[in-house]
């Protein structure tokens, strides 16, 4: 009997009759190889999982808009900022960093804050975190650092010994370690935390002048964190707390918002500023470079399918648009290479053709073929350049002003040479601006974590790290030593000078 219901079909669109029973020789006999539907179902199921991200595997995401409220056209010609009231659609993916795709949302960790702006000049990816700084300042150290956040090769468990061994040997990590050990390391979901582009980027205006820039997103929901105990309890009660929190608020029309702001540094200031402005372990103090209002970012649309949108979203700091450029920040330079490479491995060479990653305006180039080409492959248009047939040209208006890099001698320069080795002032300042309650929680969290250091090098690692805390702030060092129940006189004898 004909009905209005949709017919069940194979992936090739062929309607089929039987979706409950496999075809067998007699009711109790073996299954026939010709039951193609059975193969198709099992084979597709076997291929449902794609490689999870090595970092930032557990995430949540939503679509939204950036609305421009202030004029920053004296700094940038980027069209996304060219008019007050202008709205640009975006996709934002939040994540934890170290855990696997099934790990708990309330782990102590930085949080990813990756935004894809669908602008008329192409997709701009600002792939940041909820922290303004990072653990290392040279990308060569990235893989080693991430290994310390993952599982021990022997025990297959997370290891406080690995983490503190690495951090104590890399004092450049101290600033980020302090932030992650504070209660901001366990935010109350994703709505109550700030976001940062973290790297220094550049802005280029209509007169082709360059400015250095830091991007900030201040939560309008207010900062709210779990304590260490609350985060631990939530890991057992609802490991998907942040996913559920974000999804339900958007479903209920309570759209989370962030105020977008920038810090701007004139190009020449970088040569004389007392802090290396391209060092990802440092912030630009607000007193020197105040926050400038830009607009409001709002998340207002849940994707209708998690895998299609959140899992397949691919962000790359390489993707900047006209009016926004890179900087010599070494970590940014490293990520320009490694992010698209990660996506080609995880999603394939045509990952930018997937709906969440696709530029909704225009793509015109000579890239053709490859696995999973779904964009029509540019039809019968020429696949080489230059040619006498199409109207595609490289437009010199998009050219950035030349960079004065200040040196032309290639070498392996020590990233922590004299003048680049103050790992302590900014963490110390941060500690001293915390409320007494925030300080107490920070100390408790550090002590809790450092108590996990074990094995034959326990004393060495503990003392080495303690030395860094003392250098950041004497009071902090004393409090941690006390929490670890160390004999201070004995410990001091073993401290490096
Ligand atoms: P300000 O006194 O102008 O601002 C202090 C900043 O610290 C605010 O942005 C505040 O964020 C943030 N903050 C407070 N508690 C924590 C925490 N536990 N973890 C991370 N950030 C926190 O400071 P300055 O600009 O003079 O910088 C002083 C120190 O503040 C820096 O050394 C750095 O450690 C930290 N900081 C600075 C930022 C910057 O871009 N200048 C950004 C973030 C931190 P909020 O406004 O959301 O409360």
Automatic annotation (TrEMBL):
SUPFAM superfamilies attached to this UniProt entry: Heme-dependent catalase-like (SSF56634)
Protein's UniProt keywords contain Metal-binding: yes
Top EC class, one word: oxidoreductase
Full protein name: catalase
Cofactors that this protein relies on: heme
Highest taxon of the lineage: Bacteria
Annotated ranges, domain Tyrosine-protein phosphatase: 71-327
Family indicated by similarity: Belongs to the catalase family.
Annotated EC: 1.11.1.6
Matching InterPro entries: Catalase, Catalase_3, Catalase_AS, Catalase_clade1/3, Catalase_core, Catalase_immune_responsive, Catalase_sf, PTP_cat
